[in-house]
Structure to design on (893 residues):
């Protein structure tokens, strides 16, 4: 079949293409070069050429090996025409029989603005339901709700430059060193030049805390008390800006009263040392230029919206907003979290920042779209949406660019819902745990192939441009949505010829009839020609006329409320909805690690991004570890009311007693433990509907280790019959860590057990070596004389496993007869010394190499390590760890 993707036309045949990184909301500019490499764009305002470890590894995600390349119906390859007809027909029939609210879309902050616009228009304007929600519900919903309450619209007032201009930057529930690395590096560069204080507020001691002047390890979920205490302190110290408040805000009295009422209990509620609290409060009160940055430690909470408003209150009360170096700053997670909010991708927003509770907005949007069935009320929010799928209210669901089978709370229930749903469509680039449950899988054009725009955390709209063809028949999501809409009978309203045309329509709607009076107004971009759209340089909204560009907002008031005043919102402290009890006495916190992106569909395929952290370990405080009888690397069972899982433990002194932390990334594809989302509870913020992903009540128990193993395999198998396994890609195959909690089987039972681990093809040749004295078992499988897999098992504490790096080199290679004994010995060839666990992913520098260099060359600073080994000189995200290693080496010297 010939390739018909219309994207082909806009792919630059040769030359350098500027685009935007598809990972985090920093929104770094990248340049894709004809030699296949991807580098930072020195002209992009977000990063000025810098990239983090994930951005630096983008080129390595462009292999087509296991991409989805054809539509699948019930798991079988199908033609696009067939698949599109089927989707349109099933949605139409479901709506005809059960009404518009019986169908739903679940989309993503990783959709481009154009995809999002088309999906929103189709659901809210033409199908006539509010049932489109996005994974931003799990991510930004509390910030959106807080912004709407305070500002009258979902607006981030500041810019990244404010972090550099501030004298105090407060990071609340944000591990920016790992999650917004380039922005964090900008902050550190500013701190290196002049006095700038950083305060990190996080129950855990994270990499970000390494760079902080003060770390407040508060009790989870108590940020509201902390910021209420701050507001009360500011009032006591006469540090409020009464003039500014009188001119530009309302609600101060009630907010202050609520804050003062609980102020005496702040230390008790937050569990913080009163002296630390006093220090933070004094710094805030005494520093005119303060930026408060917040992320998921704030949003993902049953009291998330109140946390947001408690923070914003302190800025409104001191006039510290919309001025250089000042402001509350919600940093977004996904590359287009902002764009999705702009089009109205959340179930409770209408379109272009207009809301359902504004009758004139409904009328305006209806006329603009010529919408036959405009939805007039909000739809179901993500968690409720999947509840409705499970109980049969929703009968047809289309999921685009998100993996809810892993990333939603109570993941097992979500999978049950997908199984129960009569019709599930999933658009993705790779197979994952959600596509596995779809009736129809639609192959999507991915990063590097798709064409459109994204908006980053500082309201800058940037282009993602294609520089390669989609593999096979993959297509851009907006085109697929438009094709289905046309087949559902709405030909004219969905007949754009390219993404520029979609963007122009979106831009026009944003300024329609009340141009200039809504903060989100990009009508100045509505007349872009195709060529101008292609060439569009990063631009910050609002863009009210051609050539306009936004700056800071609200410095002189002018909020988007009916009377133009910003609102202080009373936020009396409420404890989070999730409570521990006798049965589930521990708090499970979940979040991110440095080099992985969400459910690992891309970063999990890049060997060097798994070199730093290769498995999902649960961080446990030394006190809890001692109580549970755990040492580093032991297995631990973690159980919530929803599920239980077994992972390895890391003893982490930065962890508060009574609290565990588990990365969110690993899925059933990568680890026997499956997704953390399976354990996580779904307590919701009552205003935003955002789930409390940071707080689940659990219990933990040590699981004995009977043996350990290393499996190397040319294929990404899922080992059977072992207590714990985790997999990392190697480039030429896969490496598995195995831990057995039951003694190894004996006698005749051994062979099926080994087969379950190795899953050898029929006719393979087996080599086996057992050393009962040492407690080791070694097996190698050859197929056509090449090494297909090998297994090393060690029982007893003294038994050693070979180094992964050494054996991995042989995988897939032809094994000569004379090499067979040494293959099973697993010893490195003479003279080879492994570099140890990778610390710097950008330059693949290992721990041992760094430790050796520190000792041999008497290095004392990360800069000296950089000069010597290059480690830490690209993205800088390993610099906190380099500092730790320097400290450790100094201590052990
Ligand atoms: N490497 C990497 N970077 C990413 C992503 C990724 O997958 N990998 N994803 C992107 C996305 S979509 C997002 S949303 C962002 C998220 O970026 P962050 O929000 O920085 O990341 P998280 O690790 O989810 O959570 C941040 C911190 O909140 C803390 N926390 C937990 N409970 C509380 C609390 O009650 N109060 C406070 N103050 N803190 C608390 C956690 O301990 C954690 O360290 O990262 C983006 N960047
Ligand atoms: N326990 C716990 N759970 C969490 C969180 C947490 O902190 N703890 N964080 C939450 C947050 S903040 C977020 S943002 C979510 C993220 O959760 P998800 O959105 O489920 O995570 P991703 O793995 O990024 O899923 C994106 C999917 O889109 C696919 N994809 C990439 N590009 C394209 C494209 O162009 N088109 C299409 N159609 N598909 C594409 C990818 O292959 C991948 O399968 O997780 C949430 N879940
Ligand atoms: S900080 Fe890293 S992940 Fe985020 S946009 Fe920049 S390069 Fe991409
Ligand atoms: Mo997110």
């Amino acid at each position: 079949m010939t390739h018909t993707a219309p994207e082909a036309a806009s792919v630059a045949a040769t030359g350098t293409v500027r685009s935007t990184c598809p990972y985090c909301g920093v929104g770094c500019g990248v340049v894709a070069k004809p030699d296949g490499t991807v580098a930072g764009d020195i002209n992009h305002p977000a990063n000025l050429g810098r990239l983090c470890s994930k951005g630096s590894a983008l080129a390595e995600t462009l292999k087509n090996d296991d991409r989805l390349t054809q539509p699948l119906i019930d798991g079988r390859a199908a033609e696009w025409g067939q698949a599109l007809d089927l989707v349109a027909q099933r949605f139409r029939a479901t709506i005809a029989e059960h009404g518009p609210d019986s169908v739903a879309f679940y989309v993503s902050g990783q959709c481009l603005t154009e995809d999002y616009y088309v999906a929103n228009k189709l659901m809210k304007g033409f199908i006539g339901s509010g049932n489109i929600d996005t994974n931003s519900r799990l991510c930004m919903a509390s910030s959106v709700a807080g912004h709407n309450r305070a500002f009258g619209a979902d607006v981030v007032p500041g810019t990244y430059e404010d972090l550099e201009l501030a004298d105090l930057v407060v990071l609340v529930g944000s591990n920016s060193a790992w999650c917004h690395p380039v922005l964090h590096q900008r902050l550190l560069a500013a701190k290196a030049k002049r006095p700038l204080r950083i305060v990190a507020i996080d129950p855990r001691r994270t990499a970000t805390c390494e760079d902080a002047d003060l770390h407040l390890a508060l009790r989870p979920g108590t940020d509201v008390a902390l910021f209420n205490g701050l507001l009360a302190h500011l009032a006591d110290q006469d540090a409020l800006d009464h003039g500014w408040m009188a001119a530009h805000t309302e609600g101060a009295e009630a907010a202050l009263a609520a804050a003062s009422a609980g102020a005496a209990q702040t230390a008790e509620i937050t569990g913080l040392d009163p002296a630390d609290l006093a220090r933070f409060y004094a710094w805030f009160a005494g520093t005119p230029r303060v930026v408060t940055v917040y992320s998921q430690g704030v949003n993902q909470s049953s009291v998330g919206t109140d946390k947001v408003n408690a923070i914003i209150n302190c800025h409104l009360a001191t006039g510290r907003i919309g001025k250089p170096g000042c402001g509350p700053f919600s940093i977004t997670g996904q590359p287009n979290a902002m764009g999705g909010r702009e089009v109205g991708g959340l179930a409770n927003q209408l379109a272009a920042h207009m809301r359902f509770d504004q009758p004139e907005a409904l009328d305006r949007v209806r006329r603009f779209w010529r919408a036959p069935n405009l939805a007039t009320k909000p739809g179901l929010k993500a968690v409720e949406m999947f509840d409705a799928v499970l109980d049969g209210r929703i009968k047809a669901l289309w999921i685009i660019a998100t993996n809810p089978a892993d990333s939603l709370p109570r993941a097992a229930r979500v999978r049950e819902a997908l199984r129960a749903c009569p019709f599930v469509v999933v658009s993705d680039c790779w197979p994952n745990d959600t596509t596995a449950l779809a009736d129809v899988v639609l192959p999507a054009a991915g990063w590097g192939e798709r064409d459109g725009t994204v908006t980053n955390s500082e309201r800058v709209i940037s282009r993602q441009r294609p520089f390669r063809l989609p593999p096979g028949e993959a297509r851009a999501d907006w085109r697929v949505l438009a094709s289905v809409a046309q087949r559902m009978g709405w030909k004219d309203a969905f007949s754009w010829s390219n993404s520029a045309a979609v963007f122009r329509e979106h831009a026009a709607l944003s300024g329609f009839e009340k141009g200039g009076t809504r903060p989100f107004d990009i009508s100045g971009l509505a007349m872009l020609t195709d060529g101008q759209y292609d060439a569009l340089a990063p631009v910050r909204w609002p863009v009210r006329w051609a050539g306009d560009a936004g700056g800071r907002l609200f410095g002189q008031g002018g909020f988007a409320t009916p009377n133009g005043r910003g609102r202080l919102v009373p936020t009396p402290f409420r404890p989070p909805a999730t409570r521990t009890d006798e049965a589930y006495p521990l708090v499970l916190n979940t979040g991110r690690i440095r080099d992985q992106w969400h459910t690992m569909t891309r970063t999990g395929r890049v060997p060097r991004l798994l070199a730093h952290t290769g498995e999902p370990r649960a961080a446990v405080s030394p006190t809890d570890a001692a109580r549970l009888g755990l040492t580093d690397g032991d297995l631990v069972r973690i159980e919530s009311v929803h599920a239980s899982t077994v992972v390895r433990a890391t003893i982490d002194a930065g962890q508060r007693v009574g609290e565990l932390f588990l990365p969110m990334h690993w899925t059933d594809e990568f680890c026997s433990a499956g997704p953390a989302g399976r354990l996580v509870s779904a307590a919701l913020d009552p205003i935003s509907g955002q789930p409390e992903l940071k707080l689940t009540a659990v219990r933990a128990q040590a699981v004995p280790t009977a043996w350990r193993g290393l499996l190397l395999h040319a294929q990404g198998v899922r080992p059977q019959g072992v207590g714990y396994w985790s997999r990392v890609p190697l480039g030429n195959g896969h490496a598995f860590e195995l831990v057995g909690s039951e003694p190894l089987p004996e006698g005749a039972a051994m062979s099926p057990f080994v087969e379950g681990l190795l899953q050898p093809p029929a006719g393979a040749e087996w080599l086996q070596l057992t050393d009962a004295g040492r407690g080791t078992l070694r097996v190698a499988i050859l197929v056509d004389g090449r090494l297909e897999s090998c297994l090393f098992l060690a029982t007893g504490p003294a038994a050693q496993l070979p180094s992964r790096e050494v054996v991995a080199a042989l995988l897939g290679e032809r094994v000569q007869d004379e090499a067979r004994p040494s293959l099973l010995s697993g010893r490195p060839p003479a003279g080879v010394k492994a570099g140890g666990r990778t610390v710097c992913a950008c330059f693949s520098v290992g721990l041992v190499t760094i430790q050796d260099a520190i000792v041999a060359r008497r290095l004392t600073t990360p800069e000296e390590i950089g000069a010597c080994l290059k480690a830490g000189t690209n993205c800088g995200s390993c610099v906190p760890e380099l500092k730790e290693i320097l400290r450790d080496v100094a201590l052990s010297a």
Summary: Residues 141-330 form a domain with the Dimethylsulfoxide Reductase; domain 2 fold (CATH 3.40.228.10).
